[in-house]
Amino acid sequence: MGFPARLDIPAPILEIARTLDGAGYEAWCVGGSLRDTLLGHPQTDYDIATSARPDEVQRLFPRTVAVGIKHGTVGVLDRRRELHEVTTFRRDVLTDGRHAVVQYGVSLEDDLARRDFTINAIAYHPLRHEWRDPFAGERDLRAGLVRAVGAPEQRFQEDFLRILRALRFAARFDFAIDSATWEAAQAASSGLGQLSAERVREEWFKGVQTARSIHRLVSLWIDVGAARVWLPELAATASQIKLLPEPGPGSRDPVLLTALLVPNPSSVLARLKSSNAQIARAAAVEAGPEQPPALDEISVRRWMSAIGQALDDLTEIWQLRHGREAPWRQTSRSIRDQGDPLTRADLAIDGSDLLALGVTGPAVGHILSALLERVLDNPRLNTREALLELAKEIS
User: Fold this and answer.
1) Of 39, 118, 136, 188, which alpha carbon lies 20 to 30 A from 265's?
2) Predicted pLDDT at 43
3) Secondary structure, 3-state, the chain
């Protein structure tokens, strides 16, 4: 691999670097975008680390956003109003496994030394085309290795989330985890309980979305001890998970993958403090039924009526589980394309029409439900005239 002589840095990043450099400050490209570029994944944005303090960055640029000001990060808006993160060189002076108190006024080397893994501790000067790699991150990229910067025990004690990040990088790039780093991660895994559910959820979601092998990601979570703390359901279903086909890169909805991997996804997502919409989707998948009782149009139409908005999710779950297209997919698409009525709201008449016929009280709802049953069997009955006649017969 080796370091290229120069990188093709986007113009807005160069402009930010020139402004900082012209004011007498250092400006280096750092972070995951640099790592991914070296792995052959071209990037359109790069984070910048600088010797300028946050207030100095805000003074130099007319349009900024305080995206992470307490951590030293200022968002700089370019001429197209796209945001680029500029972070002051910093060093941790106090950590508790979740948060860090940082100190400014340190060197680039100090800043790189506080980073989690060697593959993320590389810097490139976009104007002078110089590289800094004090922890041999490029060598580890070539070797396919996730290795902590410095003492892995210290890195994980500083922030336990780094354990989950190690698993994510290993699964995303199909890298091995350095033995000392792995042992330290296992030893520190009980500390994962100190993390907020939101941070764990974000790592879990990123993990299932980017892993080359979901099977490997799950195994890593189980083996390091992370599943025991946050997702014990994974260990309970590990043998069944191994039998599942690997999801393709286009099938990476984190809610559906969670539902695929655990039997009670709504409870898991609630534990991870997911959004109400995500939890509701998972609950609808759990409620099922997972597939229509038969594949004829009437059976599929009735199944679609019963599951409502969960159709696409249940179809995708079945396909993830079996590795092929659901046998009802074409039929359900035809039913949708035809605009067949599936709910009482789809009927050609409503409660006001029944009131005009003299129907009152609970009978209104009963008759509408009975009419829906008729049109599920025969959608051609869904006309105002036909339904009014049927309503008279039923009442």
Assistant:
1) 188
2) 80
3) CCCCCCCCCCHHHHHHHHHHHHCCCCEEEECHHHHHHHCCCCCCCCEEEECCCHHHHHHHCCCEEEEEHHHCEEEEECCCCCEEEEEECCEEEEECECCEEEECCCCHHHHHHCCCEHHHCCEECCCCCCEECCCCHHHHHHHCEECECCCHHHHHHHECHHHHHHHHHHHHHCCEECHHHHHHHHHHHHHHHHCCHHHHHHHHHHHHHHCCCHHHHHHHHHHHCHHHHHCHHHHHCHHHHCCCCCCCCCCCCHHHHHHHHCCCHHHHHHHCCCCHHHHHHHHHHHHCCCCCCCCCHHHHHHHHHHHHHHHHHHHHHHHHHHCCCCCCHHHHHHHHHHCCCCCHHHCCCCHHHHHHCCCCCCHHHHHHHHHHHHHHHCHHHCCHHHHHHHHHHHC
